[in-house]
Amino acid sequence: MCLTTVPVKMLHALHSEMTKLYILRLCSWMRVTTKEVSKHETWVTLSTLERNKSPYAISCLPLEFREITISAMDRIELMIFNLRNETAKSYDITRQLQEIHESVRLAFLNSFRDFAGYLGTFGAELAQSRSNKENNHVQNGYMNGTDRESSASMDGDLHKKLLVVLSNIGYCKAELSDQLYNKYRHIWSPIRDNDERSADMRDLVTSFSGLEDKVLDQYTFAKSNVIRNAAHNYLLDSGIHWGAAPVVKGIRDATLDLLHILVAVHAEVYSGARPLLEKTMKILVEGLVDIFLSLFYENKAKDLRTLDANGFCQLMLELEYFETVLNTYFSTEAQQALKSLQESLLEKACESGSEDAASDDKQVPSVSPDDLLALAQQHGSDLLQGELERTRLNIACFMEPTLQSGSKTSAYSSYQAPAPHHPQAQVSSPSFRRQQASSNSPIVSRRRR
């Protein structure tokens, strides 16, 4: 009997070791194959049905990774099941199973980390491509019209590719990692408690979150360059001399041209990576206000050397328009930056008024800060609501909650009927109202002293 038992145990041990070896080879195949498929990206986004109605407009790459992982893990799962049933009856394989479980768990997690790294490489390569293109433009000195059109087309293509990378990362973080981990965690769950399983998921989410932030920075930085060019045209190249501005009649076309950049980004992110829409827009809106501040200080001694009352009221009306339209995406930091910009404009307008009064032979008294604020507030009260209604089609994506929730019927019905008239206080800029209602404005206080 003993002579029979020994060979049986040896065969079971051999079977166990061969199974373990084959499982390890499957784990290796999973990671190697993931690396191979990650070398090629088509940049073509899948349809809503192909991605199972996911809000992330992914390419085929995450689904190829998913198929590789499922193929390997299904085979591993079956082999471990057979090993338990066939061998455990006559041979204690607890130690071997523990080793296999841990090897499979680590291979699964590392495969996701590898894939995250490959996605990050795509983002880094796109960022480097953009940097190289910008350096070439600097070295060439200037671009003619054809070069500008070609550059704009290349920029648009690069931005869309960055958004594809961002969508793939978001999909893996929010959907794929959780889906596959829950599907296969029972393989190693006998030796993992709930806290350890939670730690695994936190580790995966952290890996993708850090990468998501990095690629989002690259995307918003690329968009900020476009916004800066449009903001420069809006403030300095729109054909208006701010020291002798015409009477304020409403917002200028340049205002809508600048806003349309944000409308385009909103549409792009909404269709490509909807869960990241609010975060992206808040970054860009804060960046827009910072760009305004930067352009003001860069040109306060040149193109913005003087700012008369009409110019001040024009800019204050348009800033109030921006703040009202983009209110959903105005962070606390953006509000503070906007207030700083408004105060800087007020100070510049007061300085310009004082200089004009000093050079006037009749010594006409300069306009006080309170008078300027009251004048700007009056223009806002008279014009802002009408401008919001006039441009409601341009700003629908920001002002219509029904559009953001995906209900087309309500959105279209609002276009067919006149918009209801709201009390003016509801559309007045919050930071502007604070300046108007309070005499504690730093600039006003300084001038009164």
UniProtKB/TrEMBL annotation:
BP GO annotations: exocytosis; Golgi to plasma membrane transport; protein transport
InterPro entries attached to this UniProt entry: EXOC2/Sec5 (IPR029175), EXOC2/Sec5_N_dom (IPR039481)
Annotated stretches, region: Disordered: 406-449
Keywords for this protein: Exocytosis, Protein transport, Transport
Any Gene Ontology CC annotation: exocyst
Amino acid composition bias (Polar residues), ranges on this chain: 406-416, 425-443
Pfam families reported in the protein's UniProt record: Sec5 (PF15469)
Span of domain Exocyst complex component EXOC2/Sec5 N-terminal: 8-398
Chain's role: Component of the exocyst complex involved in the docking of exocytic vesicles with fusion sites on the plasma membrane.
Similarity field: Belongs to the SEC5 family.
Subunit composition and interactions: Component of the exocyst complex.
Annotated PANTHER family: EXOCYST COMPLEX COMPONENT 2 (PTHR13043:SF1), EXOCYST COMPLEX COMPONENT SEC5 (PTHR13043)
Full protein name: Exocyst complex component SEC5
Native organism: Aegilops tauschii subsp. strangulata (Goatgrass)
Taxonomic lineage of the native organism: Eukaryota, Viridiplantae, Streptophyta, Embryophyta, Tracheophyta
